[in-house]
Specification:
Pathway: Protein modification; protein glycosylation. By secondary structure, this protein is an alpha/beta fold. The protein is built from nine helices and 21 strands. The protein has three domains: 153 residues; 169 residues, Rossmann fold (3-Layer(aba) Sandwich), CATH 3.40.50; 94 residues, no CATH class.
Length: 434
């Protein structure tokens, strides 16, 4: 795929001529917003792109607006606001929207943002600038004789005394990760770390565990929290970099992302969880089969940061063959996906969620909340199970869980034995509207 995607344009209007500012040896990119409420990217982008073929100066000084070749915006509800856009805009200036969250977690509507942005930058292949969470490329021929300097030999399977581990912090999700982990753990040993597991991470990093602990595992359950188009995150790439076989939960919309050949095992390539467990056991006991999942390391190298993809963004600013364009329907572009936003299901509230003594649980006759996410630092967290659609209400009842002493979650013991646990939780009930 080239630097710029021009192949998927139902929500974009393209113009025959694009105006350019004066030729520069150093294009200027203005960061108009913060990145998740910090200016981390003001320092990260220059650090990750210092070896790019083209160079761009990164600034967050809004006084530089008139000299900027591009204005970059990060979309979150706390970073980007319509009333905070520049009041003037140069015809030669590219306004680019950076979004690396799947639409399932974007509650705000993009409709008001029609005809605002020229380019999109995201993990989706049909963005203007494709920015995956990781990437791989062939090792140059001249470096192949010393390939172990790039990819050190992996720790042999026979010396690894642990089967698999998982790290999950978002406990209720569209992909039902807990259900998969719970079912698989009935057949093989799985160490479950994070907010949703019974084990605590030893370090604050995506890997969760230090190298001397990681090398003991054969597999990581690197499950994504949603099955959105092209959504393959750092969980996968970080696992590859650590010399562990990732077990993924990719559905059709995620399978076309470029990844090293024969580098992973997919849950959905098996008829059931038991068959998957049997295969994982087979791989763990067969050294040749285990090593086959690392043959890619003889020919390819990987990059585990999406920040270095800003090289493509910078280089594209110099490319005069890129036409002028504007996203006329940003909401349509975002929602054109195989996954949907979390929303309420029109089901009646079952007796299991009604008030019961002696815990004095209560329901207030108000409308249900529009989202059911509880994440730190708010001190509320969903149970480490995929929530069934049992805490919903249908009009005209409009029940809402009141923020009193409520059941912590509608916990499920397979197959359908739902139970309540007498802990405190906020207004949370999440399902996916089919």
């Amino acid at each position: 795929m080239g630097l710029i995607s021009n192949t998927y344009q139902p929500y974009v209007k393209t113009f025959p001529d694009r105006q350019f500012g004066p030729d520069k040896t150093n294009k200027v990119i203005l960061l108009w917003t913060k990145y998740f409420e910090t200016y981390e990217w003001l320092h990260t982008i220059p650090s990750e792109t210092k070896h790019c073929p083209k160079q761009c100066m990164i600034t967050n000084n809004r006084e530089d607006l008139s000299q900027s070749d591009a204005v970059l915006y990060h979309f979150t509800d706390k970073d980007l606001f319509l009333n905070d856009l520049p009041t003037k805009r140069l015809l030669s200036q590219v306004w680019a929207l950076f979004i690396n969250e799947p639409n399932i977690f974007v509650q705000e509507s993009f409709t008001p943002w029609a005809n605002v942005f020229n380019w999109t930058i995201s993990y989706r292949r049909h963005s203007t600038v494709f920015m995956p969470y990781g990437m791989y490329e062939p090792i140059p021929n001249e470096l192949l004789p010393n390939v172990t300097r790039i990819n050190p030999p992996i720790y042999p399977a026979q010396y690894r005394d642990k089967m698999a581990y998982a790290v999950v912090s978002r406990c209720a999700d569209d992909a039902e990760r807990y259900r998969l982990i719970n079912e698989l753990s009935q057949h093989i040993n799985v160490d479950y770390y994070g907010e949703c597991g019974n084990l605590k991470c030893e370090i604050k990093h995506n890997s969760c565990l230090p190298p001397n602990t990681l090398r003991r595992y054969r597999f990581r359950l690197a499950f994504e929290d949603s099955n959105c188009r092209d959504y393959v995150t750092e969980k996968f790439w970080d696992t590859l970099s650590k010399g562990i076989i990732p077990v993924v939960n990719w559905k059709a919309a995620q399978r076309d992302i470029p990844v090293p050949p024969n580098s992973y095992i997919n849950v959905y390539d098996f008829p059931n969880i038991k068959s998957l467990a049997e295969y994982l056991t087979k791989v763990s006991r067969n050294s040749t089969l285990f090593q086959s999942y690392f043959k890619w390391r003889d020919h390819f190298q990987i990059y585990t940061s999406f920040w270095n993809s800003f090289c493509k963004f910078c280089t594209a600013l110099y490319d005069k063959s890129v036409p002028a364009k504007v996203y006329t329907d940003l909401e349509g572009w975002l929602r054109d996906d195989y996954c949907q936003r979390f929303t309420l299901s029109p089901l009646s509230l079952p007796p299991v969620c009604m008030a019961t003594p002696p815990h004095d649980y209560q329901l207030s006759p108000l409308s249900l909340p529009s989202v059911c996410m509880a994440t730190p630092p708010h001190d509320y967290q969903l149970s480490p199970l995929s929530l069934p659609p049992v805490c919903m209400a249908t009009p005209p009842h409009g029940y809402q869980l009141s923020p009193l002493s409520l059941p912590s979650v509608c916990m499920a013991t397979p197959p359908h034995d739902y139970q309540l646990s007498p802990l405190s939780l906020p207004s949370v009930c999440m399902v996916l509207l089919a």
